[in-house]
Structure formats: structure tokens, C-alpha cells
Design a protein that fits this description.
Layout: E1 7-8, H1 24-36, E2 42-44, H2 56-70, E3 76-79, H3 85-98, E4 102-105, H4 119-132, E5 137-141, H5 151-160, E6 164-169, H6 174-185, E7 191-194, H7 201-207, E8 211-212, H8 219-230, H9 234-255, H10 258-266, H11 284-296
Parallel strand pairs: 1-8, 2-3, 3-4, 4-5, 5-6, 6-7, 7-8
Helix pairs in contact: 1-2, 3-4, 5-6, 6-7, 8-9, 9-11, 10-11
């Protein structure tokens, strides 16, 4: 990428048939739908992609299908997180070889931090990946890992590791940490992003973030928030964020990663909203409310395949 990546970088869901098999044609259709949603990039194989429920062979298939289908129309970010450093390195090299524009990775963790390797081990983990590839790395800093990534450590990685330039921060008080990281890292922080479906996006934009990584549910609406804010229309950005908030809240608190799949199934993008066991489907009550709100917002995904 010749210019820094900004804007809306949503996570693609991984579609399955109703019997749990990987839906390869659905993978391709998801990519096309998300591009039509006006995204600035697409992230694959992330937690909201159910990456933890995919075999290694399925990961390779999803990566190949996605990159082939996108065919350079937008940058693709491939998530490569793994506890074992050598596997993270091999995943990063494979993603670059297949055409990924960036990789994203969490710190090594297992059991909500119970086996976290400590600051030196975390630094070495990221360094090994940075030394192995020539595309940027996005550090995903999320409570899910249970691993603490203090601002001085993140700023040090940005300063000393050539490929570590992008950061996705999603935790309570994310805006304060974003502001502190941007101040500590200076020009080495090329892409400060937030997550959590943009629930704190206005505060995070105030703090200096330049984009957001959400689900693929409503990027056409959330992307407007970032574009308006960066163009100087902060009042318009606030109004747009307030418009998106009810659906963001329902997704975050009631649906999780199932929301995008359900809306995409209703809109004919994919044939099933199946999630793999031990995840469970949404209740019909939750699904009905989701689809009602999606219709009110005239979501692209809800009508894309009809």
C-alpha cells in the first residue's frame, strides 16, 4: 500500500452450509457484497470470522477464495494469530505470498492469559513476523486475550519493528489508550483503529483514530462516520453515529458474530447463517428484532442477493 489505510475495514464472516460444511461459493459472494458496501478494506479469518472453528486446510481455502475473488479491488487483511511463533510466521508468509495487503495478529495467548509469555516473549513473537514479511502488521489489542499490552510496549514495537504500524484497540476507555499511543508513538503509528463494532467510534475519532474495524453488518453506514469526521464535518459524524448506535448495540449485546450471517442469509448473499458448534444460533426473538432494525436502515446486505 502506497498510502496509509484509513476508513472502514470490516471483518468478513465465514459462511457454512446448514450441515456445517464450508460454503466456498458463499465466501466469494461475501467478498462481492462487502465491496458493494463501500468498504476500504476487508479483514478475513478474524475472530468474527469464526477462525477458531476452522481447520488449517479450511483457513487456506478461505484465504485463497477471498483473495482470488477480491482480485485487488480493495486491500485484504489476513488474520494470522497463533500462540506458536513459527506458525504465526508461516501464516504471515503464506498470506503475503497469496496477495494480502496486511496481516493482523493478536499477542500469543492461551486460556485468557494463563499462558501469556511475558513482555519479552510477546515482543519477540511480533519481531519474528515483522522480520519475515514485507507487508504491514496490525496489532489487535483486545481483552479477549487477557494479555496486557501497555502503551510503552506498543510504541516500542512501532518504533523498532519495521512492519508494526497499525493498531486495533478495543477495550474499555479505548479512546484514552489510543490518544496515549498516538502521542507516544508519533509518526510510527500510521494506522490507529478501533473495533467493537464502532460502539465508541466518536470518542475514538476525537482521540485520533483514523478508522474502524467492525463486522460486515452495516459498513456502508459506519464508513460515513469516519469519512464525515475526517472531512471536518464532526456534527454530521455525530448524527450518523447516533443513527447507527441502536443496531450496533443490538449486535454487540444480543447477536455477536451471528448478526452479519443472519442478515446476509436474509438478503440472499449466503444460503445459511449456520454457526459451528459449540456456538448456538440466535433465538427467533433476537433474530426478528435484528432483521426489523436492518430493514429500517435499508442495509445493503439485506437486499444484495435479491
Amino acid at each position: 500500500m502506497k498510502t496509509p489505510l484509513t476508513g472502514i475495514l470490516p471483518v468478513a464472516p465465514t459462511p457454512f452450509h446448514a450441515d456445517g460444511r464450508l460454503d466456498e461459493e458463499g465466501c466469494r459472494r461475501v467478498m462481492d457484497c462487502m465491496i458493494d458496501q463501500g468498504v476500504d478494506a476487508i479483514c478475513i479469518l478474524a475472530n468474527y470470522s469464526e477462525q477458531f472453528l476452522l481447520s488449517d486446510a479450511e483457513r487456506d481455502t478461505v484465504m485463497r477464495l477471498s483473495l482470488e475473488q477480491v482480485a485487488g479491488r480493495v486491500p485484504v487483511i489476513v488474520t494470522i494469530s497463533h500462540f506458536y511463533t513459527d506458525i504465526a510466521v508461516e501464516r504471515a508468509k503464506a498470506a503475503q505470498a497469496m496477495g494480502a495487503a496486511m496481516v493482523m495478529m493478536m499477542p500469543p495467548y492461551h486460556g485468557a492469559g494463563a499462558f501469556a509469555p511475558g513482555e519479552a516473549g510477546i515482543y519477540e513473537h511480533f519481531k519474528a513476523v515483522s522480520d519475515a514479511i514485507s507487508i504491514p502488521i496490525m496489532v489487535q489489542d483486545a481483552p479477549l486475550s487477557g494479555v496486557q499490552l501497555p502503551v510503552p510496549m506498543l510504541a516500542r514495537m512501532a518504533r523498532e519493528l519495521e512492519r508494526v504500524r497499525y493498531f486495533k484497540l478495543e477495550m474499555p476507555y479505548a479512546a484514552d489508550k489510543l490518544a496515549a499511543l498516538i502521542e507516544a508513538g508519533g509518526d510510527d503509528i500510521i494506522g490507529p483503529f478501533d473495533g467493537e463494532e464502532a460502539v465508541t467510534l466518536l470518542a475514538d475519532l476525537d482521540a485520533g483514530c483514523t478508522g474502524t474495524m467492525t463486522s460486515g453488518l452495516q459498513p456502508e453506514h459506519i464508513g460515513k462516520i469516519v469519512r464525515q469526521y475526517r472531512a471536518g464535518d464532526t456534527d454530521g459524524a455525530l448524527k450518523q453515529w447516533q443513527y447507527c448506535l441502536p443496531l450496533i448495540n443490538h449486535e454487540n449485546r444480543q447477536c455477536g458474530l451471528r448478526a452479519t450471517k443472519t442478515v446476509m442469509m436474509e438478503g440472499g448473499v449466503i444460503g445459511s447463517d449456520h454457526v459451528r458448534h459449540p456456538l448456538k444460533p440466535m433465538s427467533q426473538r433476537t433474530k426478528d428484532r435484528l432483521l426489523s432494525m436492518a430493514r429500517d436502515m435499508d442495509l445493503i446486505a439485506l437486499k444484495w442477493g435479491k
